[in-house]
Amino acid sequence: MQRFRWLFTFDYMGHKKWYFAISALVIGAGLLSMFIRGGGNPIDGIQYGLEFRTGTSVSVEFSQPVTMADVRTVVEEQGIRNPVIQESRDAAGERFSYQIQTDTLTPRQEAALKAALHEEFIIADGGSAYASESVGATFGRDVITASYKAVALALVLILIYVTIRFEWKYAIGALAALGHDLLVVIGVYSLVGRELTTGSVAAILTILGYSLYDNVIVFDRIRENTPRMRSVRYGNMVNRSVAETIVRSINTSLITLVPVLCLLIFGGDTLKDFAFALTVGIVSGAYSTICVASPVATVLKEREPQYRKLAARADAVKGS
Amino acid sequence: MKQQNIHVLVLAVVLVLVGVAIYLIYPPGEKTRLGLDLQGGLEVVFQAKTSAGKMPSSDQMQKAIGIMDRRVNGLGVTESQVQRQGTDQIAVALPGVKDAEDALQTIGKTAQLEFYDDSQTRIAGPEASKQKLLDAAAGDLSKEDLELLKKDEYVAAYRVVEAPPGVFGSNTETLYFLYKHEPAMVGDAIDSARQGFDQQGRPNVLIDFTGQGGKKFEEVTRALAIRGALQQQNQSFAIVLDNVMESDPIVDYAENPQGISGGKAEITGTFTLQEAKNLALVLNTGALPVTLEPIQKQQVSATLGKDSLRQALIAGMVGLGLVLIFMVAVYRFLGLIADLALVIYGILLWGVFNAVPVTLTLPGIAGMILTIGVAVDANIVVFERIKEEVRYGKSVRSAVSSGYSRGFRTILDANILILLTALVLFYFATSQPKGFALTLMIGVVVSMFTAILATRAMLGILSRFAFFNRGGLMGVRLGDGVLEALGEEEQGSAAASRRGRRPAARNARPAADTAIAGDGKGAAEEAAAGRTKAAAETPPRRPQQQRASAARRGSTKKRKKRR
C-alpha cells in the first residue's frame, strides 16, 4: 500500500493548471492536425469511413498471390476510373486480400467487376470471399446529420439530468469533461489517420456515457462529503472525494480497458476502429473526470460566498 | 419478510432465471440470430421519393414497406427484415442471400399493379402448381422462354401469376396462371381506393380513378361488356400486384353495357371486412407513385462473416477471462462472488437475446463486451465502499449491508446516464450502431440485476457464517495505510502509534489541505503553512465515532492490523 500512498495524499485540485495545460496540449495537437490535414478546414482533417462519403468499397480475398498492379489493371479494364486499392493484411500474412474503393457502382457494374476479378485471379473459397458496400450521396449526408443530432441531444439530456440530480455547476463540469473527451478522441483520430466510421460514432457516444459515469461516481462522493466537511475549503473536500474514489476509478478503468484492448488485438477490421475509439475514450474519460470535471466544478463552487469566506479564513491561518 | 428470507428468495429467482436462460440458449449456436455481418448476406437501404421528387408521407412509407415486405417474403429468405429508417428510408436485410444483384432487382423495383383482361391475355391456368401450369402452356411458348420460366427467371413477355386462396372464385389452394405481359391498364390509373359497404350492407371496395385512368377504365370495361354481351357470359379481369393476383372481378354486361364510366368503380363480392380493407390497401399501394433508389448497399460473404464472428468471440472470451482473474486478484473472496455474478450475467444476457430475439451483429458483440465493464463496475463501486466501511471499523457484515445501500444510488445515477446515451443512439442511429445501442441498453439493465441484487443476496446469506467476518477475505487489510494517507486516524490508534506512523498521518492531512489556494503561492510554502492549518480545521466526525465501536471489538482486530 505504501507504494500507492501518494494516490491518497495527492493534491488533485491544486494541480489543475497542469491538467489544463496537458489537455490543451493534446487537444491543440489534434486540432492542429485537423487543420493541416484538412488544408485549413478542420472538418476535412479526419479520414471519414465510407458511410460518410459516397462510393463503393469492395473487399476481396484471392486464392493466389496477386500484385496490386494486377488488381488495378483489372479494375480499370472495367471502365472504373481512379480506384483506390489497398492491400489489407491479416495477422498471419498468408492471405491475399485487397480493398478496392471506387465511385458508387451500380449493382450491374459491381457484378461485372466481381466476375472479372474471379476470372483473372480466382476469389478464395470458390468466389465467396467477397464483400462490398455502396453508399449513395444522400445516405452519407444523413449519417452525418444524424450523428451530429445524436451527440447534441445526448449532451442536452445529460446537462438536464446532472442539473436535476446534482446542480448546474456540476453539469458544467461534466460538459467540459465531455467536450474534452470528444475533442481528444477526434483529434487522435486525425493524428493517427484512422478512419472515422459509424462504428466510431457509436463508440464516441458510448464514451460520453462512460466519461459521465465516471464523473457521477466522484460527484456523488462530493455530494455526500459536502455536509460532512463544512469547515474544510471546497477544493480540499473535492480532493478528499477524489482520493476516496480513486481506487475504484483506476480499477474500473482497467477492467473496462481489458476487454476493449482484447477487441483491438483480436477483433476484425470493423471492431478495431470501434475499439480504438473506445480505448482512447476510456483513457481520456478517466483522466477528464479527475482533471477536468472536478476542477471546473470546484472553480465554480469556490466562487460562492460561503466557500470564499472559508478560503479567506484558511489563508489567514496560513499567513499568521 | 426477514432480510435473510429475501436473500434466499432473490437467489431462488436468479437460479430459476438462469435455468430459463439455459433452456433458451441450448443448444448454443442454433437459437441465436446472427446479423448479416456475421453470417453473410445483403443489406440495402432504399431512399423513397414520390414521382414528383418530394418526401413521401408517413402513410406512403407504410405502404411502401408493406410492398417491400411482400417482395422480400417472395424471395424465401428466412429471417429477412424490412425496416423503416429515418423518415424516408427503408432498410432491407437479407441474411444468407447469394445472388445480390438479382435480389436487389426483385425488391427494388417500383410496385407494379396491373390489370389483365382474362380472356385476351391469359394463356394458361388455373393450375394447382407451377409445373402443371408450364406443362399446360408448353405449346404456346418458345422453348427458350419455357426453360427460363422453369428456372424462375425473368421473361419480359410473360408473367406467372399466383392467386392465394380465396382470391380466384373460392379457391382453397394457391392457383397459378400464365399471362401475356400486356396489361390492359396499370396501377397509376387509380387515384385512391377504400373499403365501403354496398346497399345490402356487405363490405365492398370503392375505387376512384384519376381523370386519365377513369377514361382508360371505361374503355377497358366497355370492351369487356360488349364481349360479354356477345358471348352471353360475364367477362373478368385480373388485378395483379407484383405477380400476385389480388382479385378477379367480372364486369356485369347487363348492368354496364357501355362499360363503367364516371371515374369510379365498385368491387362487390363475398368479402369479409378485412378482405375488403386489404384489397383497398393493395389498390392504393399499387397506385403509390413512390420510387425506391438504393442508396446504401452492403454485401458480406458467409466466409468473412464467420471470420468476424470467430474474432469477436475470441476477443470476448479473452477479455472475460482477464476480467475474472483481475477481480479475484484484487478483491479475493468478494471478487469470486463478482465473477459468479458476471457468469450469471453472461448467461442471462444471452438468454434475453434469444428470447426477444435480438439479432446479434458485430457492433452488438462489441456492446456486450463493453457491458462486462459496466457490470463489474457496479461491483467495484460497492466493494470499495465495503472496504472503506471495514477500514472505518465496521464489522464485515454491516459493512456489506451499508456498502450496498450507499453504493446503489451512485450506480443507479451512473447507469441511468449510460441508458440515456444509449437511447439517443438507438433513436438516431442507422442499423449498425443501433444494434450496439440495443445490446448496451439490455446489458445495463441485466447487469444492474446481477451485479447488485444477486451479489447482495449471495453475500447476505454468506455473512451469516463466521468465516465471512474476516477482512482478508475481501482483500482489505486494516491498517493498510489508506485512512492514514487520507489523513484520518486509524481506529485503534494505539496500534498506529506503536508502528510509529502517527506523525506521518498528521502530515498527510495538511498535504491534502494545501489544495486550491489559488493565490499563486509556491507549493512548498503552502505545504509548510498547511501544517499549522490542520489544527484549525476539524477532521470529519466519522472515524471518531467508529473508534469507539472498534474498541469494543477486541483483540483479533489488533493482530490483523499489525501485518
Overview of this protein structure:
- The complex is a heterodimer of chains A (320) and B (563).
- In chain A, 69% of the residues lie in helices and 9% in strands.
- Chain A is of the alpha+beta class and 320 residues long.
- Chain A has two domains: 225 residues, Multidrug efflux transporter AcrB transmembrane fold, CATH 1.20.1640; 81 residues, ACT domain (Alpha-Beta Plaits, 2-Layer Sandwich), CATH 3.30.70.260.
- In chain A, strand 3 and strand 4 form a beta hairpin.
- Chain A is elongated.
- Chain B has 563 residues and is of the alpha+beta class.
- Chain B folds into four domains: 189 residues, Multidrug efflux transporter AcrB transmembrane fold; 70 residues, Alpha-Beta Plaits (2-Layer Sandwich); 175 residues, Gyrase A, domain 2 (2-Layer Sandwich); 84 residues, no CATH class.
- In chain B, the strands form four sheets. In chain B, strands 4, 8, 11, 12 and 13 form a five-stranded antiparallel sheet that branches. In chain B, strands 2-3-1-15 form a four-stranded antiparallel sheet. A three-stranded antiparallel sheet of chain B has the order 5-7-6.
- The longest helix of chain B has 54 residues.
- In chain B, 46% of the residues are buried.
- At the A-B interface, helix 1, helix 4, strand 5, helix 6 and helix 8 of A face helix 4, strand 15, helix 10, helix 11 and helix 12 of B.
- Strand 5 of chain A pairs antiparallel with strand 15 of chain B.
